[in-house]
């Protein structure tokens, strides 16, 4: 669908991963109609959010903490089927069942004040001050509120080291990992202490000539069940950062690594013997300040992601600390903007709750700030002129 003019809706949802679909479900549940009152825009080629890009050997039984979308359980999945296929099919069925009418592939390039003026720190405090103009590859949308659910997949974090340009082997981020076979017979250094690093390292170790695991901090492995109390404590730590306007940490970064049977075997075999972060890359490997060296054919950076929110830059939502100060899911600088899948809602269970909270908050805001029809017509005319 291609729009030549500006299309007015009540709410624009950017992103159709776990958080975006949860938000769309709850908008629909409180009475908003898809493609009339709200629109869901997703830049991915097909349903599945970031899951559709996961490596083929990550089967569904290895998925860490996948929670169901609201209103529909994920049942009967083959545990040995790739998670990208299982979750992609589940998301597709979910979109179809609830008639969410996701527009894809659509890229959002910028979100700005509808009048084209640069907003100050108090912009948007009164909704009557203007709509939000969402510029996209299929035309522009004008919304009275926005739910941003763009996640992190599009912003892989690449650390910088001296000598990176001189390394003669292959360097790649874990987001481009396609399975262990591409490393058969190679000497591989894996950088990072998260779940993806451990999963990919244990796969690679079965076929590689040698593996080396390096992390910035000693990894913490979590034994036993992870209950509601531990989950609330972990979320609270992340929530405090975004409340202060600091860049968010992932929830997983404060929960520790789950001690699965596969992880236990890898530790016993020595695969998960960790070294501190090296100081530099050399033409043939990596080296430390104490003179230690490791020869390598490839360096895999499983170093995580950053929030994909560059399109929100015209709204000037960032604080001096580099993050967006949040009150729940709402950006404190502009109550029209809700971020789901950001900070404490970046986990799959958090995304569900955040989607519900964002839909409720926007519903209250729009109901309290209904614009007169004449003001709406004047606004539309100013855009057309």
From TrEMBL:
Q: Could you tell me the keywords of this UniProt record?
A: Oxidoreductase
Going by the entry's taxonomy, the superkingdom of the source organism is recorded as Bacteria
**What range does the record give for the signal peptide?**
none
Which named protein is this? Oxidoreductase
Q: Indicate whether Oxidoreductase appears among the record's keywords.
A: yes
Entry GO MF terms? flavin adenine dinucleotide binding; monooxygenase activity
């Amino acid at each position: 669908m291609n729009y030549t003019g500006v299309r007015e809706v009540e709410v624009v949802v950017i992103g159709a991963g776990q958080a975006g679909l949860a938000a769309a479900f709850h908008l629909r549940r409180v009475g908003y109609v898809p493609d009339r009152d709200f629109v869901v825009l997703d830049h991915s080629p097909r349903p599945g959010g970031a899951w559709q890009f996961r490596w083929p050997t990550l089967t569904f039984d290895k998925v860490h903490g996948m929670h169901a979308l609201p209103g529909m359980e994920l049942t009967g999945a083959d545990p040995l089927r790739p998670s990208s296929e299982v979750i992609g099919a589940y998301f597709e069925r979910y979109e179809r069942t609830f008639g969410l009418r996701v527009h894809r592939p659509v890229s959002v390039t910028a979100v700005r004040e509808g009048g084209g003026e640069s907003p100050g720190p108090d912009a948007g405090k009164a909704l009557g001050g203007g709509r939000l103009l969402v510029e996209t590859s299929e035309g522009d949308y004008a919304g009275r509120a926005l739910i941003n659910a763009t996640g992190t997949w599009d912003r892989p974090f690449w650390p910088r080291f001296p000598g990176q340009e001189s390394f003669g082997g292959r360097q790649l981020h874990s987001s481009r990992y396609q399975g262990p076979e591409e490393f058969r017979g190679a000497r591989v250094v894996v950088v990072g202490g998260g779940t993806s690093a451990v999963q990919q390292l244990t796969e690679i170790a079965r076929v590689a000539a040698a593996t080396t695991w390096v992390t910035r901090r000693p990894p913490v492995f979590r034994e036993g069940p992870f209950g509601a109390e531990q989950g609330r404590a972990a979320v609270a730590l992340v929530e405090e950062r975004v409340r202060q306007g600091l860049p968010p940490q992932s929830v997983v970064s404060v929960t520790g690594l789950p001690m699965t049977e596969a992880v236990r075997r890898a530790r016993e075999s020595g695969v998960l013997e960790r070294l501190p972060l090296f100081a530099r890359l050399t033409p043939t490997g990596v080296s430390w300040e104490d003179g230690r060296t490791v020869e390598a054919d490839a360096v895999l950076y499983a170093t995580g992601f950053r929030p994909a929110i560059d399109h929100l830059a015209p709204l000037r939502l960032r604080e001096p600390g580099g993050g967006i100060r949040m009150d729940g899911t709402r950006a404190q600088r502009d109550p029209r903007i809700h971020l789901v899948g950001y900070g404490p809602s970046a986990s799959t269970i958090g995304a569900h709750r955040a989607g519900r909270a964002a839909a409720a908050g926007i519903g209250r805001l729009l109901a309290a700030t209904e614009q007169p029809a004449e003001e709406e017509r004047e606004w539309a005319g100013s855009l057309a002129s």
